[in-house]
């Protein structure tokens, strides 16, 4: 800790991170051991976080992340979208296909940013807000592939006809971005994805990841 930082805020944020990393919650005693502080400090931290709905305690006294975190999370999408747009525009214009940024939302893939090329006669209509299962389509499959460490294959995923008949997709996962799980990709009307598209999508995903760090 430095003179410019708040020890209490630091501890509160560490509590949230610890709770976010467990599915079963943590007791005051467990938090006390992990933080290296006494139980009284933990009680005060939890009480403050509970007032803001960032933490809840179940009947057994185990602390868990509260629903207030979801309200904060909803504000993340616009920030991520803004950071990704330059790389998506470049990708769409370069490939001549609809480019998109997709994030995980529960068990689904959610398109949060979409850029269509300006010079093509036709392209796939793909709208922000479109959802689909993670195990269908290049965007979701790329995210699932990233959960396997290390990544197998070329680093990008290609699909055809999984979400729309006659449409092919290519996507690469966002890597190294804390708290963001997603992918960057393109969708096009084609029987197969041209050879240069996969590596270009991979480069765009790296650009977006760098913008978000």
From TrEMBL:
An example Gene Ontology biological process: negative regulation of DNA-templated transcription
Alphabetically ordered keywords of this record: DNA-binding, Transcription, Transcription regulation
One protein family per Pfam: IclR_C
CDD domains reported for this sequence: HTH_ARSR (cd00090)
Molecular function, one GO term: DNA-binding transcription factor activity
Domain of life: Bacteria
Residues covered by the IclR-ED domain: 68-213
HTH iclR-type domain segment(s): 6-67
Record-given protein name: Helix-turn-helix domain-containing protein
Organism whose genome encodes this protein: Streptomyces spongiae
């Amino acid at each position: 800790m430095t003179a410019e930082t708040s020890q209490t805020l630091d501890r509160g944020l560490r509590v949230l991170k610890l709770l976010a990393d467990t599915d079963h919650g943590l007791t005051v005693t467990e938090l006390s051991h992990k933080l290296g502080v006494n139980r009284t400090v933990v009680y005060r931290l939890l009480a403050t976080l509970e007032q803001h709905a960032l933490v809840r305690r179940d009947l057994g006294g185990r602390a868990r992340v509260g629903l207030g975190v979801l309200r904060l999370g909803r504000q993340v999408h616009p920030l991520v979208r803004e950071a990704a747009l330059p790389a998506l525009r470049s990708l769409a214009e370069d490939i001549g296909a609809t480019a998109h940024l997709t994030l995980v939302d529960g068990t689904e893939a959610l398109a949060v940013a979409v850029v269509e090329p300006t010079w093509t006669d036709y392209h796939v209509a793909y709208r922000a807000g479109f959802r689909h299962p993670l195990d269908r389509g290049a965007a979701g499959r790329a995210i699932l592939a990233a959960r396997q460490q290390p990544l197998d294959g070329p680093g990008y995923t290609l699909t055809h006809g999984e979400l729309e008949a006659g449409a092919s997709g290519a996507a690469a996962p966002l890597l190294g971005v804390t708290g963001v799980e997603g992918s960057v990709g393109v969708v096009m009307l084609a029987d197969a994805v041209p050879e240069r598209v996969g590596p270009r999508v991979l480069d765009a995903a790296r650009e977006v990841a760098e913008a978000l760090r």
